[in-house]
Amino acid sequence: MNNLCAEIGWKSINHEGEQLCGDHVDIIEQDENSTVIVLADGLGSGVKASILSTLTSKIISTMLSLIHISEPTRRVVIS
User: Fold this and answer.
1) Which of 21, 33, 40, 50 has a 20 to 30 A CA-CA distance from 71?
2) How far is CA 43 from CA 3, 18, 22, 56, in A?
3) Which has the higher per-residue pLDDT, 76 or 2?
């Protein structure tokens, strides 16, 4: 079996004058061999974009965490 290792990092930068960022990242470690990473873009900035991206990433993260796959898999989710 192939061993895959990845370091994960990100930085959210608010639009000038905004308190919140429109991007949201969720990382869910399902077990020692499976991690789900979801990046959502709220298509804008501020409160509305932040709410949309957070809700989208939480919904997708929840749906993917309910799926159990017996072998390690790479998943890419575009929202």
Assistant:
1) 40
2) 35, 14, 7, 12
3) 2
